[in-house]
């Protein structure tokens, strides 16, 4: 009997050998933790579809921030639940808006913790869309108007930077949002604040639990006229290309799990740091299976996050961040 010439198993025999040849390292430095900040006082409400994730009011936020800082996670992504909503999303860009207040507080408590501000209007508009509603005079149909939305998104980004946000992360999928926001930030004196663009954001069913968490479900229609069709890959390159040309400092693919090919494609094509958003339903599915005792949560989460890095992500936005940080410390 001939011996196998190549024995792949030689490099798999011991834990030390495996770690020596390991190609991908998941680190706490890679993780960004999303927070849902709500108006009101003394609120800490668990999101029913996202066990372990809470809507928290600012007076109770300090404890959350202390926990993040203690975990070693270095960045949080802020979403706001305002007291009032209107057609233009005024609460997104007022000086004492919920995200602006939270940003100021966090920068005071933990100056080194990076605050990433999600720049969108859907949590702040009464219709729940990410841009302005415009009625087509010919058909009377409601559409999401691109260019009038840009003005409001620029105001939002500038007010977030004024409050102290370290990174602006526009998630609205309007055309030209990166250049509009870049110009707005530069004009206001925030030329050093980077833009993490949600470049490739699909119209995904995996955002369901988030819309409960952020109370941002569209009140009519859907987001398919601005977010991407899940069937398209080459279009993702066109989206990323325009963001790069418009000056995006970081690119994002969202969701992550069903779009690993897109993460890999962008990684091969562009040198900007790449972010994967491990979205709400990806989290909820793991939590539900774990609660049923069907999977080993820790192993599944670490395998998933490692897979996203292996696909090409440099950073991962994930609701598992604090747990993953603890598991990576071996606790
Ligand atoms: C806002 C926004 C959404 C998410 C992040 N920013 C929701 C949406 O587009 O409907 C989804 C995040 C998640 O599901 O975890 N536009």
Radius of gyration: 21 Å
CATH 4th-level superfamily: Aldolase class I
- Tally of alpha and pi helices: 11
Percent range for helical residues?
25-40%
Structural class assignment: alpha/beta
Q: Please give the alpha-carbon distance between the first and last residues.
A: 47 Å
Elements, N to C (H/E): HEEEHEHEEEHEHEHHEHEHHEH
Report the biggest beta sheet as strand number plus sense, adding barrel if it closes.
10 strands, mixed
Number of domains: 1
Mean pLDDT: 97
CATH class: Alpha Beta
Question: How many E strands?
Answer: 12
Strand content is 15-25%
Family: Belongs to the ALAD family.
Keywords: Heme biosynthesis, Lyase, Magnesium, Metal-binding, Porphyrin biosynthesis, Zinc
GO molecular function: porphobilinogen synthase activity; zinc ion binding
Subunit structure: Homooctamer.
């Amino acid at each position: 009997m001939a011996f196998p010439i190549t024995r792949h198993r030689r490099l798999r025999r011991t834990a030390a050998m495996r770690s020596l040849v390991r190609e991908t390292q998941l680190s706490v430095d890679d993780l960004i933790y999303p927070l849902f900040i709500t108006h009101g006082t003394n609120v800490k409400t668990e999101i029913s579809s996202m066990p372990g994730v809470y809507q928290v009011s600012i007076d109770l936020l300090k404890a959350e921030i202390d926990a993040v800082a203690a975990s070693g996670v270095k960045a949080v992504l802020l979403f706001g639940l305002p007291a009032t909503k209107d057609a233009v999303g005024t609460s997104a860009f007022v000086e004492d808006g919920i995200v602006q207040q939270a940003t100021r507080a966090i920068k005071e408590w933990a100056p080194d913790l990076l605050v990433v501000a999600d720049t969108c209007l859907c949590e702040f508009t009464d219709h729940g869309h990410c841009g302005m509603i415009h009625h087509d005079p010919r058909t009377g149909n409601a559409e999401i108007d691109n260019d009038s939305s840009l003005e409001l998104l620029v105001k939002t980004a500038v007010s977030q930077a004024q409050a102290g946000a370290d990174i602006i992360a526009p998630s609205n999928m309007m055309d030209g949002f990166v250049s509009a926001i870049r110009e707005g930030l530069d004009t206001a004196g925030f030329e050093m604040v980077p833009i993490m663009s949600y470049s490739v954001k699909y119209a995904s069913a995996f955002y369901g639990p988030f819309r409960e968490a952020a109370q941002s479900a569209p009140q009519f229609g859907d987001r398919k006229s601005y977010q991407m069709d899940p069937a398209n890959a080459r279009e993702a390159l066109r989206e990323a290309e325009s963001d790069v040309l418009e000056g995006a400092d970081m690119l994002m693919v969202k969701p992550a799990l069903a779009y690993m090919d897109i993460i890999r494609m962008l990684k091969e094509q562009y040198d900007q740091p790449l972010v994967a958003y491990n979205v709400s339903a990806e989290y909820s599915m793991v939590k539900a299976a774990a609660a049923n005792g069907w999977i080993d949560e820790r192993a599944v989460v670490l395998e998933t996050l490692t897979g996203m890095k292996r696909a090409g992500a440099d950073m991962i936005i994930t609701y598992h961040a604090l747990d993953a940080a603890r598991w990576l410390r071996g606790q």
